[in-house]
Each structure stands twice: as C-alpha cells, then as structure tokens.
C-alpha cells in the first residue's frame, strides 16, 4: 500500500514548517512568493492529494470557481465557434451562482493532468469540466484521485461515478447520411476530428454503419485536427482520388468552409458536383456562398446544462447524467442531387 503524502512530508522536503506549507497550499499570507512557489512545486512532485470529502455543502466551497482545461492548439481555438458558445453557456449558469470560470489552454495531455493536480493542491477550483473526452481517458481517474468534482461533456459512455452531459452524435450522423442517400449520393466521405476522441469514434462508427445499411458504395472517413488547413488538405486529397466523393460531411464548420474553398479552387461546383455538410451551424455557414447545410444545436444551452450539473455535483456529491437535444439538420444550398442522378432523372 502506498503511503499517503502529508503536509509534514512536504515541509520536510522544503525545509519549512508545517504551518508554512499550510499557508502556501491554502493561498494564505505568511510566506514569501518564492517559498510558496517552492512548496507548491514540491507538492506537485510528491503528488500530494489533499484530504477532503467529495460531498460538500455550498457554504463550504472555498474557491467559488470551476475549471475548464482545453487541450487544443491556440490557433484553432481562436477561430472555432463551438468552444466560445460552450463557454458562454457555462459562464451564464456559473455567474448566476456567483461562481467564476477558470480556463487554461494546453497543447499536451500530460500538461492538462498537471493543471488538475495544481488546481487540487492549491484549491483553485471546486470542480472541473472535462471536454474532448478520450477513449480510456486518464482524466476520469485523475478527477477521482484528486477528489475533484467533475462533469464530462461527452457520451454516451461508462464514466462510472462521474456525471456526463451528452448529445446523441450517432443519431445525428445517421440522419445526415440518410438525407444524402435520399438525394441519390452513393459515394460519401467524411472529414472527421481527432481520432482518439470519444465523440469522433462514435461518429465514425455510426457513419460506417449507416453507409453499410443504406448500400453506400464508397464511404471513407479521413481524420483531421479540426483546423481549416487540414480540412482543405483532406478535401483536395478526396477530390483528387479515383473514387471522388459526391458528398462530404465535415466534423466542424471551420473545415467545411475550408473544404468549400478547396472545391472552388479545383473547379468543382457546389452543390452540382459536390454536396457539403458541416457539423456545427455557426454564422460562418450562412455567410459563405453557397450557404452550408449544417447540423445545428444550441451549444450555449449545452454548456449551461453542464454547468448546472456541476453545481449539483459540487453541492451534493453526485448528479444524474443528462442527454441534451440531438443536433438536427438544416438544409441549405450546399447540398443537392448529384449531377449523374439529376441527369438520369431528366433523361
């Protein structure tokens, strides 16, 4: 059995009193900034786990803040509407409870875990939102070990005692494939997101199953990083292939807009020879030409529900998982019957 690290262990390693360690860990005056930083660094190195109950009354909350760590390149976050809308919904619910939202952006998984450890040690937040949940995600166990109340914005999945807020991505992607198949498309591609993310796996499996059931002759998913650059590159590869798709579904709006641009560059008219569907119905989808067919949902409301569930977990120790509304298709001018089907119908 591994011995639990105590304040005395940290004090001995740092060469200070237990009182100084307590001041540093609780953000109280009484130690210099240099000493505080050294104590916190040692606490992280020793993987100090503050002993506190998982269930707390609202009056016992010390930080009055929730934490959100986003592990994405900053250049993508600056242009992706999803996270801005999600945060706006979270902020609205938190501010109603006089809670703050602490956001940290990292580029590596290990750095994200270190942020949670630091927040727990320093008691910076009372709970956290877990976004971009991965398959076999280490953060779920880290939240339990650190006794950080958490809500996973992902699912469906077996997250044990951790509450999740989720939307049925499988149903949304199935509806999209059925819509394109009804238009006559038999060669459909998908530019997916990061392949290790749970929602990407769910969408990929649902896409493959729907295409097989509907007799789609050629169906392929190309992974990407959600950026416009990668979306454009994936589109050029697909449109240059021997089995050129007549329809492409993109896992976010940024990639769909970039894909539309790539099609224009290659002289492939949309929607006459290529139909495009975007996941995420932001303003971008309406201002391009032609406007993009998109899967739409109220992302701000999604974030609002997640925040309210986290407040419940913080106050009561648990909350039920919640299935939010499924994204629905908004057809616009970027989708139509493929030219070969249209010609056969007219003939």
Protein model, in words:
The protein has 347 residues and is of the alpha/beta class. Among the domains are: 1-46, Orthogonal Bundle (434 Repressor (Amino-terminal Domain)); 169-296 and 328-346, 3-Layer(aba) Sandwich (Rossmann fold). It is built from 14 helices and 12 strands. Strands 2-1-3-4-5-11 form a 6-stranded parallel β-sheet, sandwiched between helices. A 6-stranded mixed β-sheet has the order 7-6-8-9-10-12, sandwiched between helices. β9 (275-279), α12 (283-287) and β10 form a beta-alpha-beta unit. α2 (18-25) crosses α3 (33-45) and α8 (169-183) runs parallel beside α9. The chain starts with 6 loop residues before the first helix and ends with a helix.
Task: Summarize the entry for a quick read.
This protein has 347 residues and is α/β, with parallel strands linked by helices. 46% of the residues lie in helices and 16% in strands.
Topology record:
Layout: H1 7-14, H2 18-25, H3 33-45, E1 65-71, H4 74-77, H5 81-96, E2 100-106, H6 109-122, E3 127-130, H7 138-145, E4 150-152, E5 163-167, H8 169-183, E6 187-191, H9 198-213, E7 218-222, H10 228-239, E8 247-250, H11 253-265, E9 275-279, H12 283-287, E10 293-296, H13 299-316, E11 322-324, E12 328-330, H14 339-346
Parallel strand pairs: 1-2, 1-3, 3-4, 4-5, 5-11, 6-7, 6-8, 8-9, 9-10
Antiparallel strand pairs: 10-12
